[in-house]
Amino acid sequence: MAAVSESTKNKKDELEELALKYKALADPKRLEILNKICLKSSACVCDLTEEMDLPQSKLSYHLKILLNAGLLDKEARGTWSFYSINQREMDRLISNQICNVITPSC
Amino acid sequence: MAAVSESTKNKKDELEELALKYKALADPKRLEILNKICLKSSACVCDLTEEMDLPQSKLSYHLKILLNAGLLDKEARGTWSFYSINQREMDRLISNQICNVITPSC
DNA sequence: CTCCTTAATCAATTTTTTTTGATTAATAAA
DNA sequence: TTTATTAATCAAAAAAAATTGATTAAGGAG
Asked: Can you give the pLDDT at residue B11?
């Protein structure tokens, strides 16, 4: 099957992909996760569990949503998973003004 | 009770308000509604019902969500309600690149 | 190997959102 | 006044998303 480039994506697919990304942003906890990760440059699940007082399974759940939407990158090191902001995707998606709220000085 | 300015809003409130706006954008139908309204400058519910092949109650439901998030303006004329894009809010929220997908040349 | 830590996943439940069809209210037209 | 049009709202049902606690798997330490 041929690769689908941006230019050959139809409007419907494009809007669906966009909606997925906004859905990932559509939760205050997930926005806070993005903010926390940004402030630490990179964070593992246990860091966030502690900082945000959320159970591990909930963190993993929300991180997966952000990861699937392409807003986070993940790097496994041993038993740890380190998550960081995909700044290119954030910049592509949201305004500078809002970027400064979610990922100040990132 | 005193008015709450942007500067006195705490981070929690700010993230919740932002999440509400992204929630409004987190649906391909609503993105399409924004796009359709933009292309016509202004549209009433019956226009959109016809163009998008959606029942009236569903349109009104989605329009209300977009309106509550501040992404649309509404003007009643007789029995009609005309909706238009709140471009200031769109610009404040999303990147130029994405603005061009949702509201091209608006 | 055994024990401990880390994090992903799972299944069941709860909560939220969306859909549907009907009703209501307001205005306009005949 | 009667009839038709427009759109908001409502209540019930369906669908989707989030929460919870437990289990699993993979590494690292002793």
From this structure: 84
Q: How far is the CA of A3 from the C1' of D29 (A)?
A: 46
Pick one of 3.40.920.10, 1.10.10.10, 2.60.40.420, 3.40.50.1370 as the CATH number of A27-97.
1.10.10.10
Task: Give the three-state DSSP class for A67.
Answer: helix
Residue pLDDT, tens place only, A32-56: 999 999 999 999 999 999 999 999 9
Query: Structure tokens of B28?
Result: 């391909």
Contact residues on chain A for B68, CB-CB shorter than 8 A: none
CATH no., domain B28-102? 1.10.10.10
Q: Does A15 touch chain B (CB under 8 A)?
A: yes
Q: Mind spelling out the 3-state secondary structure of A21-81?
A: HHHHHCCHHHHHHHHHHHHHCCEEHHHHHHHHCCCHHHHHHHHHHHHHCCCEEEEEECCEE
User: Are A19 and B32 within 8 A, CB to CB?
Assistant: no
